[in-house]
DNA sequence: GTCTATATCCCGATAGAC
DNA sequence: GTCTATCGGGATATAGAC
């Protein structure tokens, strides 16, 4: 195996990385299907044909964006699942996981949420990762209900409510760049976990 | 103005209504841009050219789906805003508004959430309706914090958390058709408003 | 109101010069 | 590694027969 040296551009990325990041930004704005290779080429200041010296296909770009993110979530959940902390702290760790990943890859989160159905070869793999993630999440909530750390409501509704909020963070985080990630994770955790009703009781 | 009589098909819809409803279903599965007029024609068992006897353009279909829904939400919010009930009851009414609209037009909600950016002439109008809706929502939360009905957290985070959950209902409601709408609205309201932490206090 | 045929344009991707 | 030129196909939409 030979060492490879890559010329990096002014932002410290290889051309391939630049193309993928730019594609993610365009996919966020219009969705995978509405972005053409000519759009993407214009955004990185080359001709469409030249893109193919760096990537195999449009589909190849989508795969790179989505699969790496889905695996980041899977790995994060695995760590949280096996950690020795309270259920409430596990939920706070899940909130932080989403906040951190969304901060460092805001554009990619849009594709993960909205364009996964355009995956071809990797569709089944993606769906299995997502299914496992949701199952792990709902198990954490169920065990919290058993230990009475969590109010006894429908576990799927609780999971859905928290997860859809976390999945939508990418839409909203760019407007709130005055909040740093610790502050945001704490605020969001308070709202999602402790609720908003000032009069609510623990009964 | 002359009276018009329309032949209705076996499901009691005009052909135009059937086309729009079928389009909404396809848009939910793949997004507006990835659905072709040939796909839509096949789904309603005619040829693509024949669609144009009922609708002006593909864009015309998207406009019909999104604008009517956005106006339903605007009207619902207007009623809630002016009603003389507690803030918590206003929030519960917003939850019910979303549950009811999502139940009767699940497919359309996907376009409202994901395909609004493909609106052409009506884009600005849609954006103004959405902006007003969110402003009304956050005002309700702020007044609830003032009256101490709502815990003193960041109002935008509270609004975002509740609204993204409600906007994502269309993804999840079809899997939960065992719950009727009153049950669902109550469960969801409990989780969103009272939170999930069994140990949380009102301090 | 549905059909066939077609106009016009744009898509993803490749070939090959430089 | 980027370019020009182009292939083959599929997109929305129209024209006009029935």
Task: Characterise the protein shown here.
Two copies of one chain form a homodimer. By secondary structure, the first copy, chain A, is an all-alpha fold. The first copy, chain A, has a domain at 59-194: Tetracycline Repressor, domain 2, CATH 1.10.357. Chain A has ten helices and no strands. Chain A has helices at residues 15-30, 37-43, 48-51, 58-81, 87-104, 106-114, 123-146, 155-167, 169-172, 181-194. In chain A, helix 1 packs across helix 2, helix 1 packs across helix 6 and helix 5 (87-104) packs across helix 6 (106-114). The first copy, chain A, is elongated, with a radius of gyration of 20 Å. The mean pLDDT of chain A is 92. At the A-B interface, helix 8 and helix 10 of A face helix 8 and helix 10 of B. The structure holds a DNA duplex (18 and 18 nucleotides).
Brief digest:
The structure is a homodimer of 203-residue chains. Chain A contains ten helices and no strands. Chain A has 203 residues and is mainly alpha-helical.
Q: Give the beta-strand count of chain A.
A: 0
Instruction: Specify the CATH architecture of the domain at 59-194 in chain A.
Output: Orthogonal Bundle
Q: Fill in the CATH topology of the domain at 59-194 in chain A.
A: Tetracycline Repressor, domain 2
CATH superfamily of the domain at 59-194 in chain A: Tetracycline Repressor, domain 2
How do the SSEs of chain A run, as a string of H and E?
Answer: HHHHHHHHHH
Helix and strand composition category of chain A: mainly alpha
State mean pLDDT of chain A (0 to 100 scale): 92
Q: Please indicate the percent range of residues of chain A in DSSP E strands (runs of 2 or more).
A: under 5%
Q: Give the low-confidence spans of chain A.
A: none
Instruction: Count the DSSP helices of chain A.
Output: 10
Helix content of chain A: 55-70%
- Compute the CA-based radius of gyration of chain A: 20 Å
Distance between the termini of chain A: 64 Å
Biggest sheet record of chain A: none
CATH hierarchy, class of the domain at 59-194 in chain A: Mainly Alpha
Form type of chain A:
elongated
- Oligomer state equals homodimer
Largest interface: A-B, 46 and 46 residues
């Amino acid at each position: 195996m030979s060492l490879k040296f890559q010329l990096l551009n002014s932002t410290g990325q290889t051309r391939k990385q630049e193309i993928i990041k730019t594609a993610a930004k365009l996919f966020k704005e219009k969705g995978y299907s509405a972005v053409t290779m000519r759009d993407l080429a214009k955004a990185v200041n080359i001709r469409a044909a030249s893109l193919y010296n760096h990537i195999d296909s449009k589909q190849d770009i989508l795969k790179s964006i989505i699969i790496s993110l889905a695996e980041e979530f899977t790995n994060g959940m695995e760590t949280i699942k096996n950690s020795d902390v309270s259920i409430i702290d596990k939920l706070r760790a899940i909130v932080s996981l989403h906040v951190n990943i969304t901060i460092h890859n805001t554009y990619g989160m849009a594709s993960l949420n909205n364009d996964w159905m355009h995956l071809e070869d990797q569709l089944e793999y993606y769906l299995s990762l997502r299914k496992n993630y949701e199952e792990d999440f709902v198990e954490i909530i169920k065990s919290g209900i058993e230990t009475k750390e969590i109010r006894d409501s429908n576990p799927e509704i609780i999971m859905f409510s928290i997860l859809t909020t976390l999945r939508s963070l990418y839409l909203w985080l760019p407007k709130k760049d005055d909040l740093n990630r610790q502050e945001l994770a704490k605020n969001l955790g308070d709202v999602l976990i402790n609720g908003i009703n000032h009069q609510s009781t623990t009964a």
